[in-house]
Write a structure and sequence with these properties.
single chain; alpha/beta; 3 helices; 5 strands; two-stranded antiparallel ribbon
């Protein structure tokens, strides 16, 4: 398996996207991350805005998926 952990990560020649899914409902987070994981994308999840901001400070994501309710709920 050819994996490079840099931002231009590649797995078997396929460009990986880094995706952040933010939602306060675990079922929604699990559902949204299914397809990207099947496509070998890297998916991280956060249950609230506070955790999301910590992840965003540490990682540059290509895509972020959230609900407005969760995004506005900092706690």
């Amino acid at each position: 398996m050819n994996y490079d952990s840099s931002w231009g990560a590649r797995l078997k020649g396929v460009h990986l996207k880094k995706i952040l899914v933010i939602d306060d409902e675990v079922a929604i987070r699990d559902l949204i991350e299914l397809v990207p994981r099947r496509e070998n994308d890297v998916v991280q999840t956060a249950e609230n805005g506070k955790i999301a901001l910590q992840l965003l400070d540490a990682v540059l994501y290509h895509i972020m998926v959230t609900s407005l309710k969760t995004a506005l709920n900092y706690g």
